[in-house]
Structures are given as structure tokens and as C-alpha cells.
Specification:
The complex is a heterodimer of chains A (202) and B (158). Chain A is of the alpha+beta class. Chain A has 5 helices and 9 strands. Chain B has 158 residues and is an alpha/beta fold. The relative contact order of chain B is 0.19. Classes of the chains: A alpha+beta (202), B alpha/beta (158). Chains A and B meet through helix 2 and strand 9 of A and helix 5 and strand 5 of B.
Chain lengths: 202, 158
């Protein structure tokens, strides 16, 4: 009897503790990845061993939210790459479901918008799965903890998708500023409306 | 004159209906609607006109609502999060001749309201909540649904 109660409690605890989608939580160490950039070269997380952190953003060409945030993402890199927090954008959508997100289209967008940061194609979707990315754009701010990257923040870029001029909370910027001044990140996880990642049909 | 009067009688209810069909609501009204008392199954789908998979799966909700008297479908548009004009949704509802109840959520700061609707929701759409009105049992899915999925989900909470 007691054993079955313990089992039931353990079961409930397990269910409550396991995140719905898996993936990284704040504080977790991130495994290295290597993906093809729009330039044709491979880019891996270890390439950033000397930076203070990396702003990993799961993003795409087609989602209206990605379009709404495109200039804000470019501005993030302009502002923070030189301060040790460059942007690395990763496109995880399956082009057979979302043709506008093909590698060729990614190259076009990066050229048109003059991306000065990598725009990587997660063709197998394994990186998006490992991170637990759900939508675009979805930010994972990583900090360099003496050679290993840990997750410092997961979520939205800011609190107003519709209007960049009406933003009241710049989540990613606040998190980076906190990391740079060794303060606690005020909000480590946020949510926003977005487009689901177009997963390959299982 | 008689003809004009006849037309007015015939067309007026339709005009009124399509106006009230997609009501702009705040979070509190949406929550009250989700939590309303009913002995039926409540199906609440979150969508937007720009969302391809949402538009694709929409006929499944329309069909379900039309076929089953024990199911009440609500389609909650999140269009205003990106575009302040509800007319876009009104036009869509008219063009697609949607029969389901449509609400348009008008809220700021999604980080605060997404969790108040559903803790397991990332905020990505399409997303759907299914509630057994009698028992309060609840299912949440955050993905595009296909033929038969809704019936299966409903059967799981009956």
C-alpha cells in the first residue's frame, strides 16, 4: 500500500517536473552544434569560445513575427556583438512544408538585409529539438561560463511585437546588461505569440 | 417598397450576426468565456489570419461544431498582437463564412497573459484547449491538428 502511494507520488512529481517539450532550461549547459551558414561555411558554437556569450535566435524568413522582429534582431547584433554578445540566427523550418524557408531563400534574405551575423540552416531540426525551441523568433541567450555555454535567458526579444517604439520591456537587452554587470537576470523566461516551428512530418 | 422592406427583414439579421460574430475581447472576458458553465465539450482554438497551419486546420473545427451538438467551438484570433485592425479578421470570417463563434483578443504584454490562459503554452499557434464542461477535465495541444485528431482528443476526456 505504502509502496503504491510512493509510486503514485513519484509519478505525479515526475510528470510535474518534466517539461512539456524537453530542451534546455535556464542554467543548463548547451551542447556544441555545427550548422551550415548562408555563406556556405560551417559555424559551430565553439567558434565563439572567446566571446562572453551568444544570442541564439531561432528565426525564419516567412513568419510574420520574424518579419516584425527582423530589424530588431539586426540591431541587437549591431549593439552587442562588439560587447561580446553576437547574434547567431538558426532557421529550423522544414522547407518542404514552408518553401519560403529554403536554404536559397535564407541566402537571399541575409543578402537583402545585409546580415552581419550567421544565419544557419538546421536542416535535421536536431538543434531546435535539443534547445527545445517552439516558435520563431525564439531567443536563447547563452553565457560563456569558463569555456562552456550555459542558458541565461529563454524567450521573447521584448514585450511588443506589433510596435518596436511601444516596447516597455527589452527582455534580451536587460538580460545581457545584467550579465555584463554580474547582476541577476530580471526575467529569465518569457513568452510571446509566434509561429510554431514547421517540424518535418514524423 | 414592399420588396425593400422584405430585403431589410431578410438581410438585417445577417448583418447584425456578422458584426457580433467576431467580438473584440479583453483577457478577462476570454477567461470568463473559457470557464463558462456548460455540460458540453468546449473547444477553444487559438489562431490568426496570417498563420498557415491555423487556416489549414480550421475546417476541422467548423465541421466538428456543425456535426456535434455536444461540442461548442470558439476560434480565438490573436491577430491584434501584430496588426491593430480587427477588420482583417472580420473580412476573413466573412470570406470563409465561418459558423463557429469567433473572438478577437485585444491584450498587451503576451508574457503576462499566455500563462493565464494555459501554463503549458509557449505562445505559438495553432494551439487548442479542449475542456469537458461537466468534469472540468482539460487537454491542451500546441500543433496543427489533422483529420480525426479532435475526435480522439475529445474521447480522451469523456
Amino acid at each position: 500500500m505504502i509502496r503504491s502511494i510512493i509510486a503514485a507520488v513519484a509519478c505525479v512529481l515526475f510528470v510535474a517536473a518534466s517539461p512539456l517539450k524537453g530542451g534546455y532550461d535556464v542554467g543548463d549547459t548547451v551542447a556544441d552544434f555545427k550548422l551550415k551558414n548562408v555563406t556556405g561555411k560551417m559555424v559551430s558554437l565553439t567558434d565563439y569560445a572567446s566571446s562572453k556569450g551568444v544570442i541564439v535566435i531561432f528565426d525564419c524568413n516567412t513568419c510574420p513575427y520574424s518579419k516584425a522582429y527582423n530589424d530588431r534582431i539586426i540591431a541587437l547584433n549591431k549593439k552587442y556583438a562588439s560587447q561580446g554578445f553576437p547574434v547567431v540566427a538558426i532557421q529550423p523550418n522544414d522547407p518542404s512544408i514552408s518553401p519560403g524557408d529554403s536554404f536559397e531563400e535564407m541566402v537571399k534574405l541575409a543578402e537583402k538585409k545585409k546580415y552581419d551575423f550567421p544565419y544557419l540552416f538546421d536542416e535535421t531540426q536536431n538543434v531546435a529539438k535539443a534547445f527545445g525551441a517552439t516558435n520563431t523568433p525564439h531567443v536563447f541567450l547563452l553565457k560563456n561560463d569558463g569555456g562552456k555555454f550555459t542558458v541565461a535567458y529563454i524567450g521573447a526579444i521584448d514585450d511588443n511585437s506589433r510596435d518596436a517604439s511601444a516596447v516597455t520591456k527589452k527582455y534580451v537587452e536587460e538580460a545581457i546588461e545584467s550579465l555584463m554587470t554580474s547582476k541577476e537576470v530580471p526575467a529569465t523566461k518569457t513568452k510571446a505569440v509566434g509561429c510554431t516551428i514547421k517540424w518535418k512530418n514524423a | 417598397m414592399k420588396k425593400a422592406f422584405f430585403l431589410l427583414i431578410v438581410l438585417l439579421p445577417g448583418a447584425v450576426y456578422s458584426q457580433s460574430a467576431a467580438e473584440v475581447v479583453k483577457l478577462k472576458q476570454l477567461q470568463d468565456h473559457i470557464n463558462r458553465e456548460t455540460s458540453n465539450i468546449k473547444v477553444i482554438n487559438f489562431w490568426a489570419t496570417w498563420c498557415g497551419p491555423c487556416v489549414k486546420e480550421m475546417p476541422l473545427f467548423e465541421k466538428l461544431g456543425a456535426e456535434r451538438k455536444d461540442v461548442e467551438v470558439t476560434l480565438v484570433s490573436l491577430d491584434l498582437d501584430l496588426n491593430p485592425k480587427p477588420e482583417v479578421v472580420h473580412r476573413f470570417v466573412e470570406r470563409k463564412k465561418l459558423k463557429s463563434k469567433v473572438l478577437i483578443l485585444d491584450e498587451k504584454d503576451p508574457n503576462s497573459w499566455i500563462n493565464q490562459i494555459e501554463k503549458n503554452w509557449s505562445g505559438a499557434i495553432p494551439a487548442t484547449i479542449i475542456i469537458n464542461g461537466k468534469t472540468g477535465q482539460r487537454k491542451f495541444v500546441e500543433k496543427e491538428l489533422h483529420e480525426g485528431d479532435l475526435e480522439k482528443l475529445i474521447a480522451e476526456i469523456l
